[in-house]
Structure formats: C-alpha cells, structure tokens
Amino acid sequence: MTKQQNTLKGFAKHLSEFEFNALIKGKHLGFTAAYKMYSHCVFSLAWYLTKDHGLAEDIMQKTFEKLLQNSSTIKQRETLGGWLKQCVINETASWFRKHPQLYTISELSEELSNTSELPITTTLATGCLNQLPIHAKNVIYQHVVLGEKHSEIALKMGIEADHSRQIYHRAVKQIRQWLLAKGLK
Question: What is the pTM of this model?
Fold first, then answer.
C-alpha cells in the first residue's frame, strides 16, 4: 500500500460516539480527539497536493479552524473524515487560486538553461524545478526571469527581502545538489 493510499485510508477512521458528540457540542475533548485522529492524514494530503511543508501546515491549520467553526453542522461521525478530506482539497484549491503560478515550467527551465554555466537540458531543468516548493519557484522566476530585486519580490509575496534572498539561495543550492547527483559538475 502506498503512502497516498494509507493517507486516504486514515480519513475512514471514526471517532467514538462519545468523542463525536463532544465535538459537535464544541467541547475541547471532541476537538482534541479529532485532531489526534486526523491531523496526520490532513497534513499528509495537504503535503501531497502542494509538496510544500509550510503550506501544508497552513492548510492543516485552516482545515482544523473550519472544523472548530463548523463542527455542529456535521451530522454523522462516519462523514467527519470525508468532510475533513474535502476541506483540505478546498483549502488547497483556494490557495492556488489566490496564488497562481507566475510562470510556466518550460519558460523557467529555458531561462535557467540560458543563464547557467552548466549544459542543462530543458528536461533536466524541469525535473529539478518541479521538485522545488511553489514559493521557491516563484522567487526564482521573479528574480531570474523577470529580473526583479528581492525587495520587489518580498512586497509581492508578503515576506521580508532577506527571506526572499534566503529562499532563492536555498533553491539554487538545492538545484546544484540535484545536478551534481545527476553527474553534472
């Protein structure tokens, strides 16, 4: 069984009747039980969909905030896991709608290949870029392709300029490591 199948299977678990009743009444005990039972599944699905640890944590937090706000609307304990899974999917989709990718992978791969001292094929560059978290791809695109300064990138992304630089340097370092692992020096 794959990790993804295991994660989806985890949503099929059910709280006890006592814990579920506590949850829909807004009791701390019910929420804690739900969190303990489903938090790993919620995070794993969010990470699978985003490939970004920080973003997956944010989605998990929003999902459980929704559970706190809407627990009284859940009618059957058997539907809680499915409800949480759908919340993760909806939160992820919402994030991607609010933060559309500012580039295409092929455009970014071509630019990195042109500016690199290494003979990087588009396929190889695309493979490396696809492994990066979305925020790192955005910083690289804005800095390398659009030529923006980190202060400009920071304003757009709602982060500090130093954080933008840090994301950029970590992503470049990671790409170099991947390329070296593939035998390119």
Answer: 0.56
